[in-house]
Every structure is written in C-alpha cells, then in structure tokens.
Design a protein that fits this description.
Radius of gyration: 24 Å
Largest sheet: 8 strands, mixed
Shape: globular
Bound molecules: ligand TSX, manganese (II) ion
Oligomer: single chain
Distance between the termini: 71 Å
C-alpha cells in the first residue's frame, strides 16, 4: 500500500466498518489506470464484464432484472424530526433506521473484498469541491466511481491527518458463505434495500442495490441530497442542472444552468450544437451544478462530476451526436443489448435494428421479439473529458459565472415554447411550480401532469419549503447580479398531435433570444404568465416553421392557465407553513394577472 493512510477519522471508520461487515479483504483505491485495469481483469475473469470488440477498453454489464433503477420508495432522508425531511421525502427516525441497517450490515461482506474509494466531487482542491470516501463491496462500483468522480490518492493526501470527508457506506447486501458460488449481479431483495441519508451528520448508508444512483454514492446521494442540505446551511446551491457555455459570433460568452425533470433531454441540451451560424456551444456538465457567490458578487458554477452516467436508449447521432462520439472508447455500458459483432445496441440508435442480438437479460433477441433489447434505463458511464465539445474551462476550480437559469418540462399543450420571469421571485415561482407530463420512461400512467419543483423532488435532502426559501434568500444576496430566469417547453403539439418545434440543435435559437434579452437587444411582451418573445425576435433563419405554428408555440390560452391554478394550489398546500410567503404572493399576483 503506497498511499498515505494517516487520516484519523478515516482509519477509525475503516476499522468500524471492517468489524461490522467482516470482509475477507480490504483494498484501498488509488484511482490509477493500473487499478482500473486490475478491477476489469477481475470482472472479466468472473464473467461479469463482457468485453466489446467494437469499442476499445469498453465493457458491458448486465444487472439483476430486479436491480435496474433508483429505488425512490426505499430512499430515506433521516433527520431527527420528520418535519425537517418535509412532504417530498421518506423519513425514518435515525436510531430506528440505523438499527435496522446495522443488522443488515452485520457480516454482509463475508466472502468479499471491501474497497475503500477516496474521491473528490469537483476538481481536486477546488474551493467548491467536497471530499467523500465510499466503502463498497462491489468492484462494479469501483470502476464506475473511477469514471464518475475523481478517485485518487491525492484526495487522501489532501485530507491529511485531520481533514474531514463525507462517509458513504455501500454494500450490495449479499454475503457469500464459504465455497458458495457467486452470482453475476448479487443484490438484496427490494424490501431489504435502503438508500439512507443522515444530512445532520453528513452520512450516507446504502444497502442492497448495485445500480447507478443507489450505489455510486458520489452522485445523487452526496452531490445532490447531502450537498443540498449542506449548501442551505453554508449559503450556496447544489442543483440538478446541466451547465453549458454559449458563445455568440462576437465571442461573448454566456453560461447557462438548466433544470429539467427526467425524459426532457437534459443530456442532449448539455451537448447541443447550435444550428445558427457563428454561435458555439460547449458542455460543462449534464446533471449537477454546485454554485457559490464569488468575490464579484456573481454566481459561479462547477460540475462536481467527472463523467456522464446517461440513459442509452434514445441516444443517437440524430438526437445527440456529441454523446455518441463520447462513447467510442473507455466506456462502461449497463443493461444495453449485445450485438453479434461485439458492440452494444439500444432502441433509438441510428440505422437498422440488428437482425439478432443478446438482450439485457442475456437472452436471444430479434426484431420480432416483443420485449426491448436494452432496458429503458440502460446506461453508459463515460469520462466527461472524452466529449468532443467539453469546455476547456470545465475543470476551472472557481467555476463559471452563470448568466441564465432555465426551467422546463414536457407539455403537449398550454405552456409556450419560451418565456422569461418578471423578476427573481417570479423565477423562483416558475421553478417551484415546474411540471412535466409523464412518459413511458416514468413510472405510472402516461400523460399525467407531475409537479417536479426545480427537478429536485427526488434529490432535495431537506424540507422542500425551506429549499424554496433558500432560493429566495440567494436572490436577495445576488441582487442585480442574479441570473435571469426563463422557462421553456420544447414539446408543445399541434391539434393533430405533431411536435410544433423542431427542438435539438434549433433550441439554440431560443438560447440566442435569452442572450439578446440579457444584452437588452430585444424587448418582450408582458403577458399574465411572463415575458414572451415579440414576433420576429426568435431567429428562424434557415428553417421553415409556418407562422401559424410559431403563433401556436407562443400562444397563451388564459382559460387553460386558469384551469392550472387549483393544481398549483394543491401543490403549494403540501408545504404547509413552510411555503414562503413570497411564493404565496407570487401565486396571488399570477391569479390577478390572469383576471
Ligand atoms: O432532447 C430532446 N430535446 C432537447 C435537445 C437539445 N428531445 C428528446 C427528448 C427525449 C429524451 C426532444 N424531443 C426535443 C428536444 O428539444 N424535442 C423533441 C420532440 C421532437 C422529436 C422529433 C422531432 C421534433 C421534435 N423531429 C422529427 O421527428 C423529424
Ligand atoms: Mn439527473
């Protein structure tokens, strides 16, 4: 072991966990390429990783069919009082939850190696970054953490003897008896899975699942749930947002952070390439933004992650060519289909379907099969540095200054293509009431309207009402340096059910309008819902959109908006007396404007 293991808290914690979980071996990770290769060797030998002939240093994994997504019902925010967790989170009393989990953790790593994974969320040493250490008995977690976070012995050096870190304990919950044969994807049954957060002591305990957000604890658990709670206390923001840099033909840069619920194409927007001449777009992050007020009073954002853990189905050269080019080598695929020539495949990929493949469950698949070849939540894990349009400043320790916040959702009607908030409080109102129609990718019935404030419902580590107040407080501190706030809907449909807006690269036209609003180059029409583009102010050069369609995309149906009010009231009612007075006022004013 050539890493310095002198941190007192870490050494005590490793000892505690070893006694509790009783692993056969302990391995301290250093994040090196050799270590990654060693883990992959181990996973190949046991047949868990499948090498891909068509993509260098890339591998396919198949999870257990019961372990394919985040388990929101089994996710807990364990604050000392239920009130503090708020109406959007599952809560259990910390002592009770810990007792239950300690019983599960007892001997849970028997027959396995315990990996100690020191990682940094954010560039190592950045003032906005945070250090975590994940202990896990899953080598799949180790290789994914290598890509998604900065795993390094430099993190241990930075910690020194007395430095602090966020402990993230993970077990797949499947101990092996002596001589017992391991399965390909060991995990615990659903009623034994727990994804637990103790925000008051900045602690994460995960048990029973090996999948994505349940197991790669730096992402949703640390960088969103724990970080949002820490950020509230420390006066910064941890948001479920992509970050991108837009540069206009004169070379002026604009930085945009955007929050969308799932199935709205956040990763596609993060890597979007403009269709308008002279404009450039670069990716800084596709999922999470950590933001702090800088010494100049502006809001600076970093991407705390090191890679993309993206949904594969639907990703193609037509929807996201930059993602496709990111996936050529050094990628981990999970629950994709395997083609006969040693490549991965998924529904929505370019070109013809393969005549034969092995589906995500390991069975023969042909186009005649009634089930999907890839699981709808199949994923790629890829280094962000491989993205052809990654911004050269994406690892700048101080971050990039945010000019624009975008909220949005998927709405086939009512909500126009784009509008701007009147002011910060109105922008917070738009974020707090953001809604999306459910798609096949969600659970439950298709086409239902679901409120997902700031796209944070599953990820806010404390009372959502207090979170709204935190947004208002940040606005007070930012004053006239606060980013401007916009709301978009790429998904409005015509009477006959066709998408009215071409989306994708043409969304650059909408971003351009936002930049021109900021620079005072264009006006806007005051409407009851907010500021709408004036006719002719959206650049439609080079595309053919009938002016009737444009009219429909920007049309405001006052009656339809009035019909939304009861749903917004019910939504707000859930937050009780923690709903900020200023949002109640926003709703009153909105109603007044609607008449
Ligand atoms: O990601 C999407 N974006 C954002 C892109 C930067 N999608 C995919 C959503 C599923 C994850 C979109 N789908 C977008 C969009 O802007 N718009 C649409 C709807 C749409 C789909 C297809 C076409 C037009 C609009 N065009 C044709 O079918 C030719
Ligand atoms: Mn996300």
């Amino acid at each position: 072991m050539n890493v310095s293991m002198k941190n007192k808290k870490l050494n005590m914690w490793i000892k505690e966990v070893t006694e509790l979980c009783q692993p056969d071996d302990i391995y301290i990770c250093n994040g090196s390429k050799e270590e990654y290769a060693l883990m992959i060797q181990k996973l190949l030998k046991s047949g868990i990783a499948i090498p891909l002939d068509k993509r260098p240093n890339s591998f396919l994994f198949r999870s257990d069919p019961s372990d394919v997504a985040r388990v929101e019902d089994r996710t807990y925010i364990s604050t000392s009082s239920k009130e503090e967790a708020g109406p959007t989170n599952n809560w259990m009393e910390p002592k009770e939850l810990k007792n239950t989990m300690l019983n599960l953790y007892k001997g849970c790593m028997k027959g396995r190696t315990m990996y100690v994974i020191p990682f940094s969320m954010g560039p190592i040493g950045s003032p906005i970054s945070k250090i975590g250490v994940e202990i896990s008995d899953s080598p799949y977690v180790v290789v994914n953490m290598h890509i998604m976070t900065r795993v390094s012995d430099r993190v241990l050096e930075l910690l020194g003897a007395d430095g602090d870190f966020i402990p993230c304990l993970h077990s797949i919950g499947a101990p092996l008896a002596a001589g017992e044969k391991d399965s390909k994807w060991p995990c615990a049954p659903i009623d034994k899975k727990y994804i637990s957060h103790f925000p008051e002591e900045r602690l994460i305990w995960s048990y029973g699942s090996g999948y994505g957000g349940n197991a790669l604890l730096g992402k949703k658990c640390l960088a969103l749930r724990i970080a949002s709670s820490v950020a509230k206390r420390e006066g910064w923001m941890a948001e479920h947002m992509l970050i991108l840099r837009l540069t206009n033909p004169e070379g002026k840069q604009y930085h945009i952070a955007a929050a969308f619920p799932s199935a709205c194409g956040k990763t596609n927007l993060a890597m979007m390439q403009p269709s308008i001449a002279g404009w450039k777009c670069e990716c800084i992050g596709d999922d999470i933004a950590w933001m702090k007020i800088g010494s100049d009073g502006r809001l600076y954002a970093i991407n705390p992650e090191n890679g993309f853990f993206g949904v594969a189905p639907g990703t193609s050269y037509s929807t996201n060519p930059m993602a496709m080019d990111t996936l050529k080598e050094n990628v981990i695929f999970t629950n994709c289909a395997l083609t006969d020539d040693g490549d991965v495949w998924w529904e929505g990929m370019d070109g013809d379907e393969p005549a034969h493949a092995i589906d995500w469950k390991g069975r023969d698949w042909t186009p005649e099969s009634t089930e999907e070849a890839a699981h709808p939540n199949a994923r790629f894990t890829a280094p962000a540095s491989q993205c052809p349009v990654i911004c050269k400043d994406w690892e700048k320790p101080e971050g990039v200054p945010i000019d624009i916040f975008i909220f949005g959702g998927r709405r086939s009607n009512v909500v126009p293509l784009v509008y701007e908030a009147y002011n910060w409080d109105h922008g917070v109102f738009l974020g707090a009431t953001a809604a999306s129609e459910t798609t096949a990718a969600n659970i439950g019935a298709v086409g239902n309207l679901r409120r997902d404030p700031f796209a944070m419902t599953p990820f806010c580590g404390y009372h959502m009402g207090d979170y709204f107040q935190h947004w208002l407080d940040m606005g007070d501190r930012l004053g006239d340096k606060a980013p401007r706030v916009f709301y978009v809907n790429w998904f409005r449909k015509s009477e006959d059910g066709k998408f009215l807006w071409p989306g994708f690269s043409d969304n650059s036209r909408i971003l351009k309008w936002m930049c021109e609003r900021i620079d005072g180059k264009v006006g806007a029409e005051e409407t009851p819902i907010g500021l709408l583009p004036n006719e002719g102010d959206i650049d439609l050069n080079g595309i053919n959109i009938p002016s009737d369609d444009m009219g429909e995309l920007l049309r405001i149906d006052t009656d339809a908006w009035k019909a939304e009010i009861p749903d917004i009231e019910n939504h707000f009612f859930k937050f009780g007396n923690r709903l900020p007075e200023r949002l109640r006022k926003q709703l009153q004013e909105f109603k007044k404007r609607l008449g």
